[in-house]
Write a structure and sequence with these properties.
Blueprint lengths: L4 E3 L12 E5 H5 L8 E3 L2 E8 L2 E5 L2 E5 L3 E5 L5 E3 L6 E7 L1 H8 L19 E3 L2 H19 L6 H23 L9 H13 L6 H7 L4 H11 L4 H19 L4 H7 L5 H12 L3 H8 L2
Parallel strand pairs: 1-3
Antiparallel strand pairs: 2-9, 4-7, 4-9, 5-6, 5-8, 7-10
Helix pairs in contact: 3-4, 6-7, 8-11
């Protein structure tokens, strides 16, 4: 995909390496052109405090207002209305900042709003919830502004508190169960699909990687993820197909090849079955 900027984490902004930051949206807007399609190499939680406008994450566009939060994972496509979303904060961090402390490689995987397969990137806060999250973000910002090396433990504790408060609000408002009981196999399956969906489309392939039978992997997936293993793979293929159709000029044949479909005609049938549109119809209807 072309014309997509990628922004890396400024690790030494405060002297020694620090993998967490709070950045005011007013500051970001100075360096982000209007309608700029971009990706980040880190996790981002954006809190809107004033203004309203459009915010896209991957294939989902949102109209956002004050007291709303948007969540994005590393390398997701993003685009936002820098002209009308006037104030807010981006709480950003690298995975290593938490993992090195908690020694739990699945910690962020078990956060509902950071689920690879989620489609809901936005959370609306009540006034009480907004005050709580806004205050936590401001506390984090204050600790960073006063940063010394010894403050890392305080910052990790505050970040953990913010993540867990948002997890509670998100799961309650979206009627989903917290993911703390999800099996290790389900976590590994999601990561394997995320890494290999463009080459491997079969449940059998991932089951063998996990030393499971395809039937058992399907049972685990339905229990812990909510959909079959086959649906997980298909959903990931559809999501990536839409990205190529919306944000690149690749031909249908080129997209089919990149996603390892046997033939372009099979890709067209697959896409139509799952979206109700042919790839060209979708591109014509939805392309920004």
């Amino acid at each position: 995909m072309k014309n997509i900027s990628e922004y890396d984490f400024y690790k030494t902004k405060y002297g020694s390496e620090l993998l967490i930051d709070v950045v005011e949206l007013q500051y970001i807007k100075k360096y982000l052109p209007a309608k700029s399609l971009h990706t980040l190499t880190y996790y981002d939680i954006t809190l809107i405090t004033q203004g309203e406008g459009f915010f896209r994450i991957d294939n989902t566009g949102h109209h956002v207002n004050a007291k709303e939060i948007l969540f994005s994972l590393p390398h997701q496509l993003r685009e936002w209305d820098t002209q009308n979303i006037s104030h807010g904060y981006a709480l950003i961090f690298k995975e290593e900042f938490l993992i090195s402390f908690f020694n739990d490689p699945h910690f962020l995987d078990n956060i509902s709003y950071f689920n690879i397969n989620r489609t809901n990137n936005k959370l609306k806060l009540s006034s009480k919830e907004f005050d709580q999250i806004n205050n936590l973000i401001l506390q984090i910002k204050h600790e960073i502004d006063e940063y010394t090396e010894k403050n890392k433990h305080i910052l990790r504790a505050l970040l953990y508190q913010a993540l867990m408060c948002l997890e509670r609000i998100f799961t309650e408002k979206n009627n989903v169960s917290p993911k703390g009981n999800k099996s290790t196999h389900a976590d590994r399956f999601l990561k394997l699909v995320h890494a290999g969906f463009d080459k491997n489309h079969t449940v059998k392939y991932y089951a063998e990687k996990l030393n499971l039978t395809p039937n058992y992997l399907n049972e685990l997936s339905k229990r812990d993820i909510g959909i079959s293993a086959k649906q997980v793979i298909q959903n990931r293929l559809i999501t990536e197909s839409k990205k190529y159709l919306l944000y690149s000029n690749f031909t249908i044949t080129e997209i089919s090849d990149r996603l390892s479909f046997e033939t372009p005609s099979y890709f067209i049938r697959f896409f139509h079955k799952h979206t109700g549109y042919t790839p060209l119809q979708f591109r014509k209807k939805e392309k920004p």
